[in-house]
Queue: 3 jobs
Job 1
Amino acid sequence: MDAIDQLTDTAAVIEPKAARARGQLRAMWVALRPEQWVKNLFVAAPLFFSQRLGVSGAVEATLAAIALFCAMSSSVYLLNDIVDREQDHVHPRKRFRPIAAGELSVSTARLMMVVLWLAALLGSVRLSAGFAGVLMAYWALNFCYSRWLKHQVIVDVFVVAAGYLLRVLAGAAVIHGAVSTWLLICTTLLALFIGFCKRRSELTLLAHEAPGHRQVLDEYTVPFLDMMIGIVTSAAIVSYLLYTASDEVARQFHAPGPVVTAPFVLYGFFRYLYLVYQRQEGGDPIQLLLTDRPMQMTVMFWVAAAGVMLYWR
């Protein structure tokens, strides 16, 4: 009986430790924000639009670049969560983040941030000097954002948009390809659209408490953001339509085929506006994309249509 009692006592000690270890690992994984890695698919845009999916080495290099961007972006998320932990602690949604909730210590988060940063840096240098330069620019921009730029009205949204633009430039650097001016314009306008919609969602969700959660929200008003959203939406749609009808596309496709992708783009913008204005969503664009079936179908149809136009002869 003594042996059985001893084994029982040992199990009683081990089980809580194992549970704590599992909880810590889960907190570390959640803190990386893996759902946000979807943004890093923008790195693959130059590969896709340059019709190089079948080029030896290009796909492998792009996949490696996406993985390294995931590591670097998670390092940035950890930095943001460390800096903003006090504000996040009282935020209706962000309070559940591991650092804000106290599930992950600041010291552990800092260690994870440094390890990911070093891994991304070393990997990027081995992959491509140009890519490494863009990746470091992405880190530097986000460091400045976490410290100062996030408090500057309008500039804060432009910095977020620049993050998407740098992803596209990184994808071009890793395959040593040129980037279409139209791709850069459309990417920038799409990112600005998402950014201003996010600010509007935060402002309406938090109401009078908004400045306490994000200082810059005190500088925004709903009418002003509505105006910005209207301008950027119009500019993005017109730019995409001009791109599909441009001489560049005519030379590349030898047909006006890409115009058929326009309805998917139009519906995507209108659906997003519906979710922001009618359902008060849009605070987390990636979560919205991952949960809204019509948006998912729209993206899938657009990718399929664009793929047929680019690669089917």
Note: The chain has a mean pLDDT of 87.
Job 2
Amino acid sequence: MELSVAYNGDLNFIEKLSNYKSVVNVFGTITNSTVGGGRNPDGLTTITKSDIEEAVQKSHENNIEFNYLMNSSCMGNREFTHDTYMKIIECLDWLDSIGVDWVTIANPYIIDICKNRHPRIKVSLSSFAMVESVQRAKFYDEIGVDEISVRENINRNFKLLKEMQSNVECKIQVIANQTCLFQCPYQFYHDNVMSHSSQKNEFLNSHIIDYCILKCIYKKFNKPEEIIKSRWIRPEDIKEYESIGIKKFKITDRVKSSEWLLRAVKSYEEKKYIGNLADILNIVQIQNKRSNGNIVSIESSKVSDNLKKIRKMIKNFMMLDVKISNKKLEGFIGHFKNLDCNSISCDKCGYCKKIANEVIEFSNKEAICKALNEIKKLSNDIVVNR
């Protein structure tokens, strides 16, 4: 088993990761860049080019490879202008000069540029490329990517994952602890929202309100079965993926503290976790507070209404706490081994709802209700009062 782990800007974190044999690389990027990445920088640690250079050096000192993120799903066609093209070239040249091992990319055009100019650098295909079929995996394999992060929607489709890995030369990587809604209707749009928000000068002196996250969090906590439907993987079930040829797993998220990430890494390497599974899943809850680095400030925002709404949103998210009994989930994954969830209505199946009733507990239901009401008001306000 191999693990690829989110880098949150804490150099000491990289050193601590060296204690885990399964960790082969960390992934991260600068706060704002020409191409952009997969996260809105608000709330992330401020990371500069010099910070990345130090992180690459620290990673190599600890026999860990560094994966730099250039994985925006959309650049508004600016990649085809001469000025932006030259900035992409400049970035790739810089990455090569500092010894970056991997680059994560979603844009096929930028993949071609990277492979042509710097064949030494390995390319990891972002999940933003929406690989959910054997044919699409083969396409990217043929253009030379070295690994493919499949979209989480297919994480429990064992037949498809096995067929996919057996038909490509590159590695298939699965995201282990993400909790996006299964077949989320906001998925394509949200990828673009996050991509543009992470691009340099795209939203100068302003901060977006993540409408998609509001909708996502509300749905998951209002209908807990959506948390179960989400395609996360229990540490104990890693062996099920290894048995079909899937050997590499990705641990998110860059917004998490070093302590949080190390707990997740330890759990997946040991293939066991005793207690609340939500402690290692990327779910918004009070234990997820950041603890390191300089956080991208929203104090400088000139859009005061946006600033107030962002603060309110964060406050309400921090109230959402959930307990998921990992012990009670033993054998849970077996249901999906011969089932195609895309071919049956969840209402007809009912499995995830049944499981949710058995394993999910909200420690403070009053706080949950209050937070959900505030989130609903905020999302409605965004629609009618812009």
Note: The first helix runs from residue 11 to 17.
Job 3
Amino acid sequence: MLFLSVLTTIAAVGGVNAASSFASSSDGKYQLSAAQAPVLNAANPGIDNWKFTIKEKTGKKQTVKGFGAAVTDSTVLAFNKLSATARSQLLNDLMTPSGINFSLMRHTVASSDLSADPAYTFDDGNGSVDTNLVNFNLGDRGNALASMLATMRKLQPNLTILGTPWSPPGWMKQNSKLIGGGTGSNKLNHAYENAYAQYFVKYLQTFEKAGAHIDAITIQNEPLNNKDDMPTMLVQQDESGALIRDKVGPALRAAGLSTQVWAWDHNQDVYSYPQTVMNMASQYVQAAAWHCYAGNNPSNWTPLTQFHNEFPGKEQYMTECWTAVGTTDWIHSSSFNMFPLQNWANGIIAWTLGSYTGGGPALSGGGNCHQCTGLVTVSPDGSSYKKEIDYYMMGQFSKYIPKGAVVVDGTGSYLFDDGTGMEAVGSLNPDGTRTVVIQNRYNKDIWVQVGTESESQTWNARVPALSVTSWILPKA
């Protein structure tokens, strides 16, 4: 890994106790750039200070499974506009240690709000009932998405991929419509529950043949989202539990698939939903998936700690939170990494990986995600691309907290009512090094001290204003 090779060089020059620091700032001055390295017991030069502690020996928590973003039809369309050389370089920057080393991706199973018109599934068949799925077909867009995921997997052998549908084929629903929510009939027709379970099996098998092994699924994106201008389906918590327990889980096992099922895939404010699904179908459900749209402050993420306390053997993931070009809220993407990690999340997935400059393409419905923009934006003619600020903020976590790291408990994080303050999360990495990711919300540099359980003195360095800074401390 690149940062490990950098550490090796630094240690050779500065000794075995050398550490390193990399930062990304709101003004773009730092973009995963080298910052002042922490030093044991260094003296404060006379600026405001803040102290954190990490408990890398006695405070071990969850294992990190990765960071990444969602691959949508819009992502594929935008990235495929680039020349082969530019696209290869971009994917290398996204998926390898020389870049930001993404290792956890989510993809849309057929159409989402970030698809060009018309909406589609893998078995539309002009709306005719097809219980045997003889018309199942990925189509051009599905094949293009599977191909891009296969390329990503070649670049990142440790990649974990989650697949999520926005809706089953319209003929499987009570209202017989792919788009047409807003009523109680935007639900799965019980007569086609077996067909829907087999739809998952065929999709997984077909992607596997394309070289895009899928590690996990959720059975429905935002199951309480019943919007009428995009593919959606209303699934109540008891219905979700029963569908996984009685149909989807057994179908995956009967097909010899090891694909995990994750529950929920919606906001943090309906704790009872994943709780009910776990109580009904825990033998088939390995994790809970959460979105950020109930709020992105520290208190909004405490349901994940509650879930861990009730289901300590299950994993949790933050599987969707928007990114947008032009936002001055640089804190947003770093926070939807920081706060879930502080509350037992095993991985983080941004919405979305790539788009055209300014957003899209998106379905034409007025309520859809037209302004949702990717971590990377591509000019509509494919002549150039730009890594947006959220790319760098995500990279502060994904590049320096490797897969297999263990998040550790700590103290010192605090936000004031005016939004200022400091936050941090630490990890013990597989090679014994330690990472501390620090969010500085002050419009000034802060002298940060980090105490550990391995050293009697604190690590100290200047952390840039309005930045996210990652310290890599040597093996104790």
Note: The chain has two domains: 2-61+406-473, 65-398.
